[in-house]
Each structure stands twice: as C-alpha cells, then as structure tokens.
Write a structure and sequence with these properties.
Number of strands: 5
Family: Belongs to the cytidylate kinase family. Type 1 subfamily.
Bound molecules: adenosine-5'-diphosphate, cytidine-5'-diphosphate
Number of domains: 2
EC number: 2.7.4.25
Structural class: alpha/beta
CATH class of the largest domain: Alpha Beta
InterPro entries: Cytidylate_kin, Cytidylate_kinase_dom, P-loop_NTPase
Order of helices and strands: HHHHEHEHHHHHEHEHHEH
Keywords: ATP-binding, Cytoplasm, Kinase, Membrane, Nucleotide-binding, Transferase, Transmembrane, Transmembrane helix
CATH superfamily of the largest domain: P-loop containing nucleotide triphosphate hydrolases
Shape: rod-shaped
CATH topology of the largest domain: Rossmann fold
GO molecular function: ATP binding; CMP kinase activity; dCMP kinase activity
Number of helices: 14
C-alpha cells in the first residue's frame, strides 16, 4: 500500500504542475497520471471480480482477467519511474532555457538607427543641410540625387539613349553607393539627364532598394533627394522639405558653378531648374512633393547656419522622444 501511495504522489505532482502551472502543455504527465489510475482501477476491480465470481465465470474469462490484472500489477511500477525520468528531463530543459534567456537579456540590444529624410527641389540647399546634420550627429549621409546622376552618367558616357528603361535599369543595378564621385557627377548637364532617367519606375525600384537599406545603418542616416519622406523612408522620425524661390536657387547654382571655375549663364540655369522642377513634380512615379508630416523650411532668406539650427531643434526633439 505504501508503494502505491508513493507512486500516486510521484505521478500526481507533475500532473498538477503541468495542468495548472505551465502555459504550454503537451499533456504527457496527464497521460501518465491517468494511465496510473487506470492500472490501479484494473488491479483492484479484477481482484474483486476474481475473489467474488471466479467460480461462476468461464475458465477463459478467468484466465484473461488474471493475465490482465497481472499485467497491470507488473507495469504499475513502471509508470512512476517513467514519470520521474521525464520530470527530471523537463526540469533540466527548463533550467537550460532559463539560463539561456538570462544570458540573452544580458546581451547588448541590436543597435538602433535614426533617419532624417530631406527632400526639396534642385539647389534648395538639401545636400548642404544633410551634410551638416550628418556631421553634427555622426550619422551616415547619402545624397540620393547622386545615384540618379550615376545612372545618367553611365548612359551618357556610352552614348546610350536616356529613355531606354531596359538599359537604364541595368545601369541602375550596377550603381555602387561607395563609388559615387560627387566631383564627376555634379556637372549641371548630368543633373538634367538624371531627371530624365528618374521618371522610369524600373530605375527607381533598383535605386530605392539600395537607398532603403542605406537608411537602416546605425546609429543613423541622413538621406536627401526628392522622394525620401514619401517613398524611401516613409517612417523617418524627422522629415524636412527644403524650398527656396527659383531665383534664389538659380543664383546659388550659378555662384557655385562660377566659384568652381566654370562658365554659367544665370538665365539658362533658371530655365533649366524650372524645367527640372516641373519634370520632377509632374512625373507619375514618386513625384517631388512634401510628405504629409514633413516640416517645411523656406531658405530663400535663410542662411545655412539658421537652416541647420531649425533642423537641429526638430531632430533633438525627435531623438529625445526616441530614447524615452
Ligand atoms: N541657406 C542657404 N543660403 C545660401 N546658400 C545656400 C544655402 N543652402 C545651400 N546653399 C548653397 O547653394 C548651393 C546648392 O546647395 P545644395 O546643398 O547643393 O543644394 P541641393 O542639394 O538642394 O541641390 C551650394 O553652393 C550651397 O552652398
Ligand atoms: N530621391 C531622388 C533624388 C534625385 N532624383 C532625380 O535626380 C535628379 C538630380 O538630383 P540631385 O539631387 O542631384 O539634383 P540637385 O538638387 O543637386 O540639382 C533630380 O532632378 C531628380 O529628377 C530623384 O528623382 N529622386
């Protein structure tokens, strides 16, 4: 009797823990518990039957009952042993999991990244502001305009048409973000050609994929272009839309070219910029427009430092929100 009572306790405790203590249950201990109960009932009911009715029952039935009862009697000792072994294995497994989880919690969390998205028309000051922000915050910077310029440059260098989507997509896929040479790509004519290849969806798809993964670099990235806040990084915590009057922008581009020793005509530049704005704003795929949640910054009468300080206030607020 002592053996049966101990065995009952051994099969009942894991069953109760499994039933009421575990969130994920496989029912293994329940199975063993009810098997034990079944064996117990078999032994005692067969014993009672044989004691009272053995003389009146057919021999075959009597020997079947005796075999069954004997089998239950022999195996009832195995059930608590299996339960004990399984419970020990389960305990070891749970202990391992707990140690592993604890180690994982001690591991550094994956680095966060923060994105500043800057859009705006040609020569509004996006690139200048983006570089200043990247430098101040230690973020990576990508002038996405250079990627479209790189595609245009490949086609121009090989005398290929600028409106062949197949060729342009091939050129876009070959763009290497680490090899964008601003000095070579910043030529005025390349900007004009870039806005032509930029209307092609296949080109945009290829370049946007690269830009999107660049934006995820920790600790943060500043991207400037035409569709950063709307398409490339729609979830960026800070979005800026930089504008300036066409005249101010043409003047800046003119001064820039002249100071680099190039020849330029203000009227022609103004005309080119206006045409490029119309093409960039009028295309169907990812047209230039401010994202709904972008902060507008008109730099017509604003110097570079003031523009940076306005952006800095917004970035600091967003960073403070991000860390709390
Ligand atoms: N707020 C500003 N005031 C005056 N000049 C500016 C301002 N922002 C940028 N610039 C000048 O305008 C030119 C074009 O700026 P850039 O940043 O290259 O424009 P974008 O990237 O929008 O084409 C550069 O020579 C730059 O120094
Ligand atoms: N994210 C971007 C960036 C540039 N572009 C195209 O690429 C051209 C050149 O971009 P850019 O930023 O180098 O031009 P600028 O503003 O420096 O003159 C633009 O006129 C757009 O047509 C784009 O479509 N999407």
């Amino acid at each position: 009797m002592f053996f049966l009572l101990t065995s009952f306790v051994v099969v009942a405790i894991p069953y109760v823990i499994e039933r009421f203590g575990l969130r994920v249950r496989f029912g293994l201990f329940a199975l063993l518990f009810w098997l034990f109960v079944f064996q117990f009932v078999l032994i005692f009911s067969i014993d009672a039957l044989l004691q009272n009715f053995a003389t009146s029952m057919p021999d075959l039935l009597e020997s079947m009952l005796t075999t069954l009862g004997g089998f239950a009697f022999v195996t009832i000792g195995i059930t608590p042993i299996i339960t004990l072994v399984l419970a020990a294995a389960y305990l070891l497994f749970a202990l391992g999991q707990w140690l592993f989880d604890r180690d994982e919690k001690d591991m550094p969390t994956p680095q966060r990244h923060f994105t500043v998205a800057i859009d705006g028309p040609a020569a509004s000051g996006k690139g200048t502001l983006a570089r200043r922000i990247a430098e101040a915050y230690g973020f990576h910077h990508l002038d996405t305009g250079l990627t479209y310029r790189a595609v245009a440059k490949v086609l121009m260098d090989q005398n290929m048409p600028l409106d062949d989507e197949f060729l342009a997509e091939k050129a876009a896929r070959s763009v290497d973000l680490t090899k964008l040479d601003r000095a070579v790509l910043s030529a005025h004519a390349v900007g004009e050609a870039a806005s032509k290849v930029a209307v092609m969806p296949a080109v945009r798809r290829a370049l946007v994929a690269m830009q999107h993964s660049f934006a995820e670099r920790p600790p943060g990235a500043v991207l400037d272009g035409r569709d950063i806040g709307t398409v490339v990084c729609p979830d960026a915590p800070v979005k800026l839309y930089i504008t300036a009057s066409p005249e101010a922008r043409a003047r800046r581009r003119y001064d820039e070219i002249r100071s680099n020793g190039g020849g330029a005509n203000y009227e022609e530049i103004l005309e080119d910029l206006t045409r490029r704005d119309a093409r960039d704003m009028g295309r169907t795929d990812s047209p230039l427009k401010p994202a709904a949640d972008a902060h507008l910054l008109d730099t017509t009468e604003m110097d570079i430092e003031t523009a940076f300080l306005s952006a800095k206030t917004l970035i600091d607020q967003a960073l403070a929100k991000n860390t709390h």
